[in-house]
Amino acid sequence: MAFSLVIYLHLVILTWGVVMQEDKPRTADYYLNRCIFLPTKFSKTRPSPEPELESTIMAATLTGIVCLAFLVLGQFVEAEARLSAEDYLNMCIRLPNEYSKGRPSPEPDLECIRYRDGSCCKPNMTTSFLEDHQWMNMTDYGHCPQKPRLSPECERLTHDEMCFFACSPNSGPWIVRGKEYPYSDRYNQLPVCASQCDKWWNACKEEYTCHRNWFTDPAWDANGMNMCPKDAVCKKYTEVYTSAADFCNTIWDGGYHVVPDTEPCMEFSFDPAKPNPNVPVARAAAEKKAAVSGASGLKMYSPSGLFVLYTLFLLCTASTLFLHVASKMHLCSE
Fold first, then answer.
1. Cα angle at 292 between 172 and 165, to 5 degrees?
2. Under DSSP, is residue 310 helix (H, G, I), strand (E, B) or coil?
3. What one-character-per-residue DSSP string does 7-43 give?
4. Dist. CA 132–CA 305, nearest whole Å
5. How far is CA 139 from the centre of its chain?
6. 54, 90, 125, 292: most buried, per Cβ within 10 A?
């Protein structure tokens, strides 16, 4: 629609420009017998009968019908692309290719033992963190000189959170897709159990940081690693965050949302010998989101398919416009 309006406006402006260039008074008959100026092989100076006018109008009509068909087809393509609950339950957060996968699958040698039966990440994804507390060449957990290494308990709980973030196959309903590679996928308001947040906070609250929001506050070195901005001061977590919930809700820019344990919520540190408590929570959220997206018309588009469809529609609309204009000026053409 926008494309069509642009073309119409363009033609109006061109026509108006021609009219405005005339500086001599003209009679009404002059304007009623003028033709638009095109190359001489296509146009005449004055209108005269043309028997092919009817066929041109018919062509414009048929082309318009084809354009309408593309619009209808587009609605069916969009409807087919709406995500189901199973789509959400088989969705992985996208990280650089060396760390993540497109769909969860078993990883028997994965260091994140809770996700060996079905993982969205590849083995050795957290090796650098366990060695020097740096992850994915972009997050240095020991960025303050007061305490360059995390305490053992903070390391363990942070590793649990890291494994959940990158490897969990149960986070699809809360994934927000990044726009381009390397992907910056993230979570949005994923519900975390208050007891889980308390464990993470209590293990790490004596660590140091110069960031409150670790997505938006850091400066970045030439290699893409977080660092303290100029004039930033390193403080204990207890001086940066007011509570456990404030810490969990803020550190990853609202990716997590702490809720009471009585509500459906996710855990990082569940017993791997027992059933994963996050599975039923994810399924309920996936079914709800699929139902809402279907009812509201929200869709997951295939970029390549929609690009082709939209391009065809624009070309079709342009053709209709051209034939429409041609039919109007046909009396002036050879």
1. 15
2. helix
3. HHHHHHHHHHHHHHH--S---HHHHHT------TTTB
4. 44
5. 23
6. 125
| Contact (CB, 8 A) for 206 and 236 | yes
Give the dihedral of Cα atoms 177, 179, 182, 184; nearest 10 deg: -40
Is the separation of the CB atoms in 333 and 50 below 8 Å? yes
Rounded-to-integer distance, Cα 135 and Cα 311, Å? 42
Q: Is 84 helix (H, G, I), strand (E, B) or coil?
A: coil
Q: Where are the alpha helices (DSSP H) in the chain?
A: 2-21, 28-32, 53-80, 85-89, 127-132, 152-167, 194-204, 237-240, 244-250, 278-296, 303-328
Closest CA to 215 of 192, 249, 181: 249
Q: Where are the domains of the chain?
A: 1-48, 85-296
Radius of gyration of the chain (CA): 31
Q: What is the pLDDT of residues 10-30, one digit of tens each?
A: 444 444 444 454 445 667 666
Structure tokens at 211: 């960031």
Q: Which amino acid is at 320?
A: T
pLDDT along the chain (334 residues), means of 10: 47 46 60 63 64 53 56 47 88 89 95 96 94 90 94 98 97 88 81 99 98 94 92 97 98 97 97 96 96 56 49 59 52 51
Q: Cα–Cα distance between 145 and 59 in angstroms, integer? A: 75
**Alpha carbon distance 37, 14 (integer Å):** 11
pLDDT in tens, 40-99: 655 666 766 655 555 555 555 565 565 555 554 554 444 445 889 999 999 999 888 888
